[in-house]
Specification:
It holds the Pfam family LON_substr_bdg. InterPro entries: Lon_prtase_N, Lon_prtase_N_sf, PUA-like_sf. This is LON peptidase substrate-binding domain-containing protein. It is a single chain. This protein folds into two domains: about 110 residues, Roll (Archaeosine Trna-guanine Transglycosylase, Chain: A, domain 4), CATH 2.30.130.40; about 80 residues. It is about 35% helix and about 30% strand. It contains seven helices and eight strands; from the N terminus they run ββαββββββαααααα. The strands form two sheets. Strands 1-3-6-7-8 form a five-stranded mixed beta barrel. β4 and β5 form a beta hairpin. The longest helix is centred in the last third of the chain and has 16 residues. The termini are far apart.
Length: about 210
């Protein structure tokens, strides 16, 4: 599905706060709610096997709306548990802009989407020519220590620029609005700069300030 013509105009939508999928990255998901089991079943029957991940946004009065931009992934792995749940992996295909959410009798949400603003997503992996890996990993080490996280540092040092930055954007414990900012970053360079800013902010106690 590397061309615009290969992508459907309507896709199932999975609103999940804090979950981030990026093009050419992978996101593991645990599916257990009946409506999303139905969504997965229908996705697996389709040619594209796409599910659109998107951040829900609260509205005044306790309601919810969808963010304007999400990212669709193809179901590339799934395993059923003994109690009927599924562990699946989505492989990021392309971001999309929501045109409109569709009604109907489906138990899950669907939306008409526009893929055209994100042609870069369907091309080769991006590079970050100005990436200072040594200083980035030093910052990451301080951030992981502050958050009580651990990782395989050998694999991080060897990972390609895009894989490293996108994987960390997905895995770091950031607020939903921060995840959305990483998703909407127009280039890999912007995403890396945004991620650095967010880690520096957290190390300065920004997370505590935000909750006050």
């Amino acid at each position: 599905m590397s061309t615009l013509a290969d992508l459907p105009g309507v896709i199932p939508i999975f609103p999940l706060p804090g979950a981030l999928l990026l093009p050419r990255a992978r996101l593991p998901l645990h599916i257990f709610e009946p409506r999303y089991l139905a969504m997965l079943d229908d996705a697996l029957k389709s040619r594209e096997r796409l599910i659109g991940m998107i951040q829900p946004r609260p509205t005044p009065g306790g309601g919810e709306t969808l963010s304007s931009i999400g990212c669709a992934g193809r179901v590339t792995a799934f395993q059923e548990t003994e109690d009927g749940r599924y562990m699946i992996t989505l492989s990021g295909v392309s971001r999309f802009r929501v045109v409109s959410e569709l009604g109907g009798f489906m138990p899950y949400r669907r939306a008409e989407v526009d893929w055209s603003p994100f042609e870069r997503d369907r091309g080769p992996a991006e590079e970050d020519p100005q990436f200072d890996r040594e200083s980035f990993l030093a910052l990451l080490s301080r951030y992981f220590a502050a958050e009580g996280l651990s990782t395989d540092w050998g694999s991080l040092k060897e990972a390609e620029d895009e894989m490293l930055i996108n994987a960390l954007s997905i895995l770091c414990p950031l607020e939903p609005e921060d995840k959305q900012a990483l998703l909407e970053a127009p280039t890999l360079v912007t995403r890396r700069e945004t991620l650095v800013t967010l880690m520096e902010y957290a190390l300065r106690g920004g997370g505590e300030e935000r909750m006050q």
